[in-house]
Write a structure and sequence with these properties.
By secondary structure, the chain is mainly beta. A 5-stranded antiparallel beta sheet has the order 4-3-2-1-5, with no helix packed on it. About 0% of the residues lie in helices and about 50% in strands. The protein folds into 3 domains: about 5-65, Roll (SH3 type barrels), CATH 2.30.30; about 65-125, OB fold (Dihydrolipoamide Acetyltransferase, E2P) (Beta Barrel), CATH 2.40.50.140; about 130-185, Beta Barrel (OB fold (Dihydrolipoamide Acetyltransferase, E2P)), CATH 2.40.50.
């Protein structure tokens, strides 16, 4: 059985007879005290997060997780529906579970969905996505100093900083980890 030192972000554990997902994990070694692991856990039953401190040698029970590639199909009210491209089984996820990923989801986008005991615990976006610019204000003449950026609106409704030469209708590549413009996309 693994010890608390082996806990990593994204894992699932059994804590207080409940399956929980590790949202954050920090290993601490204060000068004159014993090492410990500070963890934020989200319960699958209640959806509530708790801050827990484990002794670094304390044993923890890890729950196996499965991942599956799924495709974003459509938005149903506030919820997002994903389908398995092979079996066409669907999973409906809330915006709270998706977090920042909602800013980068367009139809047919492939994501990795993580399941614990048949319940979705999170999704992983590709490191970058290509989105269409829906609104890009014109650059002002003489506004061409080094690396000047402007705010553009993308098809998902988010605003990002992009170079002056980006126009409405163009496709650009966005880094999903930082939300920043990377480059123009071909096609």
């Amino acid at each position: 059985m693994p010890s608390a030192n082996d806990i990593r972000k994204g894992q699932a554990l059994i804590y207080n007879n409940d399956v929980c997902v590790v949202l954050e994990c920090t290993h601490r070694t204060p000068g004159n005290l014993r090492a410990f692991v500070q963890v934020i856990l989200r319960s699958l039953k209640t959806g509530k997060s708790t801050d827990v401190r484990f002794s670094s040698t304390e044993k923890v029970e890890v729950v196996p997780m499965t991942t599956q590639k799924m495709e974003f199909s459509y938005k149903d009210g506030d919820d997002y529906v994903f389908s398995d491209p092979e079996t066409y089984e669907t999973v409906t996820l809330t915006p709270e579970l998706l977090g920042d990923a909602v800013n980068y989801l367009v139809e047919n986008a492939m994501v990795t969905v993580t399941f614990v005991e048949g319940k979705v615990v999170g999704i992983e976006m590709p490191s970058s996505v290509v989105l269409t610019v829906t609104d890009a204000p014109e650059g002002i003449r003489g506004d061409s100093a080094n690396n000047v950026m402007k705010t553009v609106t993308l098809e998902t409704g988010i605003n990002v900083q992009a170079p002056l030469f980006i126009k409405t209708g163009e496709k650009i590549k966005i880094d999903t980890r930082t939300g920043k413009y990377m480059e123009r996309a071909n096609g």
